[in-house]
From TrEMBL:
It comes from Streptomyces mobaraensis (strain ATCC 29032 / DSM 40847 / JCM 4168 / NBRC 13819 / NCIMB 11159 / IPCR 16-22). InterPro entries: Knr4/Smi1-like_dom (IPR018958), Knr4/Smi1-like_sf (IPR037883). It holds the Pfam family SMI1_KNR4. It comes from the Bacteria. This is Knr4/Smi1-like domain-containing protein. Residues 31-199 form the Knr4/Smi1-like domain.
């Protein structure tokens, strides 16, 4: 990581490293201590997957990573960066997006229509109850998962911490109406946190090194480093 941030002028070759006045700039927050991580897991009533625990303890608590970087765990605990105040019970519940999406689809088909009601008051009372239930089901889609990164444009990377998919990475692409989908890369139908992070490093490192060579007037350019 030190090599990747040694030439600030070429950091923009990696998405998310530099944007406006921010970006992770290949910086990592200091790792958590065992006591800090144990306290977080106790507060959230979960045990994190082994590779994510190792990252937090040995690599960094947040910072440089895929897209706009890895969210700090503290944000998940305090409600910052999109975490809800009821984060703890939500994380401890099983991740089951398939069945929940089916319920959500069925619920959407039953949205109240004005023509089915005798008056506006009855219609709106029914519609608001329907809308509240929609919000509940939509929130239930991400039960058992931790939001670890923002991909941009309202897309998020999730790490499943509870349920049959525990330890696997999923994408939240509800912003374009596609719900939640399991991450699949390089022919694999599943991706762990470690594979997700190391895959990003394997992609980012040659891009930065090629840009460094180009900036120094040596052979190699960014276009050949994808």
């Amino acid at each position: 990581m030190l090599a990747l941030r040694s030439t600030p002028e070429v950091m923009d070759q990696v998405f998310g490293a530099v944007w406006l006045d921010g970006g992770h700039r290949f910086e990592l927050a200091p790792p958590l201590t065992e006591a800090e991580l144990a306290r977080a897991e106790e507060r959230l009533n979960v045990t994190f997957p082994a590779d994510y625990r190792s990252f937090l303890l040995e690599v960094g608590a947040s910072g440089a990573g895929p897209d706009y970087g890895v969210f700090p765990l503290s944000a998940q605990l305090t409600g910052e960066r999109g975490a809800a105040p009821d984060e703890a019970p939500r994380l401890a519940r099983p991740f089951r997006p398939g069945p929940v999406q089916e319920l959500l689809d069925e619920h959407e088909e039953n949205e109240p229509r004005r023509e089915a009601y005798a008056d506006d008051e009855t219609f709106w009372r029914s519609w608001h109850a329907w809308d509240a239930r929609w919000d509940e089901l939509d929130a239930e889609l991400t039960w058992g998962s931790l939001t670890v990164s923002h991909q941009g444009c309202g897309y998020y990377s999730l790490l499943v911490v509870t349920g049959e998919e525990r330890g696997l990475m999923w994408e939240d692409v509800r912003a374009i109406g596609e719900g939640l989908v399991r991450m699949r890369r390089r022919g694999a139908d599943r991706l762990t946190f470690a594979e997700w992070y190391l895959g990003w490093l394997d992609w980012a490192e040659p891009r930065i090194k090629a840009a460094q060579r180009a900036a120094a007037g040596r052979p190699g350019d960014v276009s050949g480093a994808a």
